[in-house]
Design goal:
With 339 residues, the protein is an alpha/beta fold. It has two domains: 151 residues, 3-Layer(aba) Sandwich (Rossmann fold), CATH 3.40.50; 115 residues. The protein is 32% helix and 16% strand. It has ten helices and 13 strands. Helix 4 crosses helix 6. The longest helix has 16 residues. It is globular, with a radius of gyration of 21 Å.
Length: 339
């Protein structure tokens, strides 16, 4: 298969390139060249920007296109038009594209976010979901029912530039008493390698349509199971066992701990509009062959890489060790008998 990857420099895009090479496909990457300076000899790299340089792809026909980097509707439209004669076009959207994620279990039939009033060049995270929905609409205006749209949830794994899930195996490896939210909220995430491999299988089989993509495929996990998994992976890697200490969500909120970023992955139960974000239906993806590896394997592979220092960008905005210990000390005074 002659595969064109729009993006391809970091994380998911890089995983798609790696999976495609391993499967024996001929891979071409089109991006600005800012995130990666060198490419394997088997990968053709064409430097360019979608808004100015798509003519560098003229005269080329690809069996499939994977757009891992489209965020602005105009970029997606230009790519879709320039590559309209490709065999397939897969756009990586997001579960954030749904109009509402208040209810767990939403599937691909749920309404998408409205992008009315959102500036077409708005790159702010506040309108991330609306822009992804607008990108989907831009693709469909060109490709119609031929389009393939994948809406991932939280993507995790080795090399994750956000460090969101990685925080937890890193923290488990640090040992000592470990602050954990006493959260009833479900958790979903997918290893970047599983997502990339499955997207390639969709293209290889000529699949079209819309798919949520996250894991575990047998249903969301829980905070206690996720924490136990990270501790077990850290111990397997030779680190001293950490001791989880559950702290109430009300206490964390009163102390001003930021949800999602300050304490990674934490979405308080009081955030009613977001309770379905990490609990979407993946029944359709599972029927289309999505498989996900055990979370323990993902955590272990994250710990096989060097653990970043405190000033690493992937730790920016996270709960610092000092702040964590302050919170644990305050919680011990308020609830000395809590687990």
């Amino acid at each position: 298969m002659r595969l064109l990857v729009l993006g391809g420099g970091v994380f998911l895009g890089a995983a798609v390139v790696d999976a495609a090479r391993a499967a024996g496909h001929a891979v071409t990457v089109f991006n600005r060249g800012r995130s990666r300076g060198r490419w394997p000899a088997q990968v053709e790299h064409i430097a360019g920007d979608r808004q100015h340089d798509l003519d560098r792809l003229s005269g080329r026909r690809f069996d499939a296109v994977v757009d891992t980097s489209g965020y602005l509707p105009v970029d997606v439209r230009l790519g879709a038009e320039a590559l309209a004669d490709a065999g397939q076009y897969l756009f990586v959207s997001s579960v954030s594209a749904y109009a509402s994620l208040a209810r767990p279990g939403e599937d691909e039939r749920a309404p998408l976010a409205s992008f009315d009033g959102v500036a077409p060049d708005d790159r702010s995270t506040a309108h991330y979901g609306a822009q992804k929905a607008a990108c989907e609409a831009a693709l469909r205006r060109v490709w119609g029912e031929r389009a393939l749209v994948v809406r991932p949830g939280l993507i995790v794994g080795p090399g994750d530039p956000t460090g969101r899930f990685s925080y937890w195996p890193w923290r488990a490896a640090a040992g000592g008493t470990m602050l954990v939210p006493d959260s009833p909220s479900p958790l979903q995430m997918i290893d970047v390698r599983d997502l990339a491999a499955w997207m390639l299988r969709l293209l290889e089989s000529g699949t079209r349509g819309d798919f949520n993509a996250t894991g575990p495929v047998d249903g969301p996990t829980t905070w206690p199971r996720m924490i136990d998994t990270c501790i077990a992976a850290a111990m397997q890697a030779g680190h001293a066992p950490a001791t989880p200490r559950q702290v109430s969500e009300a206490f964390l909120q009163a102390e001003g701990v930021r949800l999602w970023t300050g304490l990674p992955l934490w979405i308080p139960a009081s955030e009613a509009d977001s309770q379905g974000f990490l609990a979407v239906s993946v029944a359709r993806a599972r029927a289309a062959g999505l498989n996900t590896r055990p979370l323990h394997e993902t955590a272990a592979d994250i710990l096989a890489e060097p653990i970043p220092p405190a000033d690493d960008a992937r730790r920016d905005g996270r709960l610092t060790p000092q702040r964590e210990q302050e919170l644990l000390a305050r919680w011990a005074l308020l609830a000395p008998s809590s687990p």
